[in-house]
């Protein structure tokens, strides 16, 4: 990553492959390191975990057919969220996993599918964790299991160790996790007051690479993408919730995420999901970029919504156009570029340090993405100044929209946490739609009677 981006993270998933797969291209073009197949697990750097070598965990769930029938259409789970865009640079939730249940802090990522924990299998490379390393259950996911197959680009993957599913997940910022897929118990509190212990798959990551030595301590990653291994997909396949996830991230820090129905769909603005990109929450229609409510001539922008990224990324053409308009619009205003501030690539200082974004928002115009659907209706995703600016620890105002071409994204446009603040974002996989509306994200729904 660019050193100027160290205050945030770029977590969009670019690759998820079985270790025995051949070298392949990452999602937006960079090459994955080669990992040739080997008859010896030690030669290939893998751990072979046999069922009798892992700690035991109950294989039973407290769910019953009666409860499942009650939940099938309208249940939901809500998790409080902790963190912020700056200076923390990430959001996480607490999940209770295992038997007995133990708490783990997981970073939220709608740009990837797999939920994984740093794991004592034993661990060959693990970073600092807030809690003791996860001890895997004895319920391994076999190599030919549908969940394992969903982690591959094709059906012709090798099964060197038939009784276990090996995985490797690599992110755009070059963080990676290598491990095996296991089943274990998640203790979930549903909004109707019922607690269930639900058996679902997760990754036991015994080899992690964190290139940035200052990376924050984490227990693992909560993958909320569109694939079968996503927790929402697994809950949906068991009849627990509709295949819907959403979040509401507060500009003050914190917020919440939810699985299932906790929103009034009539109050949201909707745009269709892409049917071509089945992994990410990307838009089907292209968008026009608006500046100050006016068309800019920059269009045909396709976007991905991703909580794994602190900041928003435009392709090079849209980014350079935005910089040009901002500089022209700020001419004659009491803001000068702060070249000594390395928090983000472009910062401005005033006559005195700023304490709040609301002190400077009057100098900046809102921007928006206006999405088309079937060439007719338009869904406008608005970004007021507080949804694309931060105040650095030097008291300067910095642009939280970055040049995606500089980090290998090509023409992709990525909507990160900063631009989704103070909005309910809903990703309805059943209806293949993305929705949003302004909201008070400091108010966490407590039950199904309190809908958004």
How would you sum up this structure, described in words?
The protein is mostly beta strands and 452 residues long. It contains four helices and 28 strands. It has helices at residues 65-71, 146-149, 231-237, 316-330; strands at residues 13-17, 76-84, 90-97, 102-109, 116-118, 139-140, 166-171, 176-189, 195-209, 220-223, 244-249, 255-260, 269-272, 281-282, 287-291, 294-295, 303-305, 312-314, 336-337, 347-349, 367-373, 377-383, 389-391, 397-399, 401-403, 413-415, 423-428, 433-438. The protein has a six-stranded mixed β-barrel. Strands 16-15-21-22 form a four-stranded antiparallel β-sheet, with helices on one face. The longest helix has 15 residues, at 316-330. The protein is globular and about 65 Å long. The two termini are 37 Å apart.
Key structural traits:
452 residues; mainly beta; six-stranded mixed β-barrel; four-stranded antiparallel β-sheet; 4 helices; 28 strands
Shape, principal axes of CA atoms: globular
Q: Report how far apart the termini are.
A: 37 Å
Please state how the strands of the largest beta sheet are arranged side by side: 3-4-10-5-9-8
Instruction: Give me the Rg, rounded.
Output: 22 Å
Which stretches are poorly predicted, pLDDT < 50 over at least 5 residues? Answer: 1-7, 12-46, 50-67, 448-452
Structural class: mainly beta
How many β-strand runs? 28
Number of helices: 4
Percent of residues in helices comes to under 10%
Major sheet attributes: 6 strands, mixed, barrel
Name the beta content range. Answer: 25-35%
Overall average pLDDT: 84
